[in-house]
Each structure stands twice: as C-alpha cells, then as structure tokens.
C-alpha cells in the first residue's frame, strides 16, 4: 500500500530526482553517509536549501554524521512513488521514440515502457526489444490492461493534440511531451514539455 505523501512544491519535486541520482552514485561507490554540505558541493546547490528540502519529509539527518545514504534513497523513492513499478506508454515509434525506447531497457528506476503506439501500418505489429508496437486505436484497451500510468509523446507536432487527448481519455494523468507544440490538457493532468528547440533558442541568448 502507498504511504501518504505530504504535498510539496514543484520546485522540490524537481530537485528530488537530482538528489536521488547522486545518492545512488554514492551508494554504488560504497559510501554510506553524506552531509548536506557535501551534497551541496557536489550538486552545486545551497546546503541549507538541501536540508530544508529533505526536512519536508521528517528528520532524516543526524548532527555530525549527516544522512544515511540508503535511508535517504528509499525515502526519496517513496516520495516520488518510485518504490513500485510505473508502466509507461510511448506514442510515436520514430527516430526519437525508438531512441527513448531502447534507452528504457537500461533504466535502473522502476519506470518502464511497456507498450509503444504508432499509426504507421509498417510499424504496427512489430516490436522494439521486448516492447510491442500497437496501433493508436488500441491505446485505451492496452493502457487499462497493462495498468499504464504515464505517457511519452514522440509524434510530429500536428498529431500531438490528438495523441494527448487519447492518453487523457484512457486515464493517463502524467505525460511527457517531446513534440514542439503547446498542448491543452485538463487541470488534473500533469503535462511536461521537453522542448529541445526552445532550450537551444534561449541558450543562444548567452552567446
Ligand atoms: N528526432 C529528434 O532528435 C527530436 C528531438 C526533439 C524533439 N523531437 C520531436 O519529437 C517528435 C518525433 O520526432 P521524430 O524525429 O522521432 O519523428 P519521426 O517522423 O521519425 O517519427 C514520428 C512517428 O510518429 C508516428 N505518428 C504520426 N502520427 C501519429 C499518430 N497520430 N499516432 C501515433 N503515431 C503517429 C509516425 O508514424 C512516426 O513513426 C517530433 O514532434 C519532433 O519535433 C524530435
């Protein structure tokens, strides 16, 4: 059963995976405790901010010893709901979709792409690794059958609104969109955009 998570700000939710990644690196290096000062130095963040973020969920750290790495990993995973398998649907088995699907096989976390969707008859019925490519029309049925909770959109911009509508109608509430277009979703859906072009464009300002 899931434990109740306190409501936390989006800024903290975005920082937790950064802490988690470094803590997992420490664990792999056999390092068992870490101070907020060391975390701050390695992550180029303010130690006071880190202590504040982590204090949200109870008193994890101990004065003079710091945080127990494994305990913090488990706690952050629990908060982010990564302590269980989260099944993901990817829509758009093109260049980007194939790259992301292949990367998925190496993911350490409990996030796993279990189904891929496309409309191209040449792709539907084939597979990428162990993941089958289904027709978009099957999305709702497969999402229900596989208990999929997250969606990734890698279709061309013109098709993205149709795809997001189908994901939402199927009950998917967390979606990562790679298509360079602003999508409309209901208020109870969490949509994030990964937009390479706008990132590069704003970076160009600093040239
Ligand atoms: N390739 C990149 O490096 C890159 C980087 C950032 C963002 N993007 C964006 O990601 C998206 C995909 O890019 P790509 O290069 O992989 O394109 P692509 O043309 O190689 O692949 C798009 C895939 O979507 C499928 N598709 C089209 N309409 C569909 C629909 N209604 N339902 C389901 N599938 C549908 C196509 O059949 C195709 O397999 C684009 O919006 C692109 O702008 C691509």
TrEMBL record:
<keyword id="KW-0520">NAD</keyword>
<keyword id="KW-0805">Transcription regulation</keyword>
<dbReference type="InterPro" id="IPR058236">
    <property type="entry name" value="Rex_actinobacterial-type"/>
</dbReference>
<dbReference type="InterPro" id="IPR036388">
    <property type="entry name" value="WH-like_DNA-bd_sf"/>
</dbReference>
<dbReference type="Pfam" id="PF06971">
    <property type="entry name" value="Put_DNA-bind_N"/>
</dbReference>
<protein>
    <recommendedName>
        <fullName>Redox-sensing transcriptional repressor Rex</fullName>
    </recommendedName>
</protein>
<dbReference type="Pfam" id="PF02629">
    <property type="entry name" value="CoA_binding"/>
</dbReference>
<comment type="similarity">
    <text>Belongs to the transcriptional regulatory Rex family.</text>
</comment>
<dbReference type="InterPro" id="IPR022876">
    <property type="entry name" value="Tscrpt_rep_Rex"/>
</dbReference>
<feature type="DNA-binding region" description="H-T-H motif">
    <location>
        <begin position="18"/>
        <end position="57"/>
    </location>
</feature>
<comment type="subunit">
    <text>Homodimer.</text>
</comment>
<dbReference type="InterPro" id="IPR003781">
    <property type="entry name" value="CoA-bd"/>
</dbReference>
<keyword id="KW-0963">Cytoplasm</keyword>
<dbReference type="InterPro" id="IPR036390">
    <property type="entry name" value="WH_DNA-bd_sf"/>
</dbReference>
<feature type="binding site">
    <location>
        <begin position="92"/>
        <end position="97"/>
    </location>
    <ligand>
        <name>NAD(+)</name>
    </ligand>
</feature>
<feature type="domain" description="CoA-binding">
    <location>
        <begin position="81"/>
        <end position="182"/>
    </location>
</feature>
<keyword id="KW-0678">Repressor</keyword>
<keyword id="KW-0804">Transcription</keyword>
<keyword id="KW-0238">DNA-binding</keyword>
<comment type="function">
    <text>Modulates transcription in response to changes in cellular NADH/NAD(+) redox state.</text>
</comment>
<dbReference type="InterPro" id="IPR009718">
    <property type="entry name" value="Rex_DNA-bd_C_dom"/>
</dbReference>
<dbReference type="InterPro" id="IPR036291">
    <property type="entry name" value="NAD(P)-bd_dom_sf"/>
</dbReference>
């Amino acid at each position: 059963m899931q434990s109740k998570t306190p409501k936390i700000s989006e800024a903290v939710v975005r920082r937790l995976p950064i802490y988690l990644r470094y803590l997992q690196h420490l664990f792999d290096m056999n390092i068992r405790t870490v101070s907020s000062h060391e975390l701050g130095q390695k992550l180029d963040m303010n130690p006071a901010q880190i202590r504040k973020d982590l204090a949200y969920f109870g008193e994890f750290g101990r004065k003079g010893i710091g945080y127990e790495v494994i305990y913090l990993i488990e706690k952050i995973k629990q908060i982010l709901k990564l302590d269980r398998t989260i099944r993901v649907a990817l829509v758009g088995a093109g260049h980007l979709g194939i790259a992301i699907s292949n990367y998925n096989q190496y993911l350490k976390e409990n996030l796993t792409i279990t189904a891929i969707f496309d409309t191209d008859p040449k792709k539907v019925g084939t597979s990428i690794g162990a993941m089958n490519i289904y027709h978009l029309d099957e999305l709702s049925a497969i999402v229900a059958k596989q208990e999929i909770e997250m969606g990734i959109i890698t279709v061309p911009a013109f098709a993205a609104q149709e795809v997001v509508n189908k994901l939402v109608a199927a009950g998917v509430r967390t979606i990562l969109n790679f298509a360079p277009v602003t999508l409309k979703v209901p208020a109870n859906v969490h949509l994030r955009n990964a937009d390479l072009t706008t990132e590069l464009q704003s970076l160009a300002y600093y040239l």
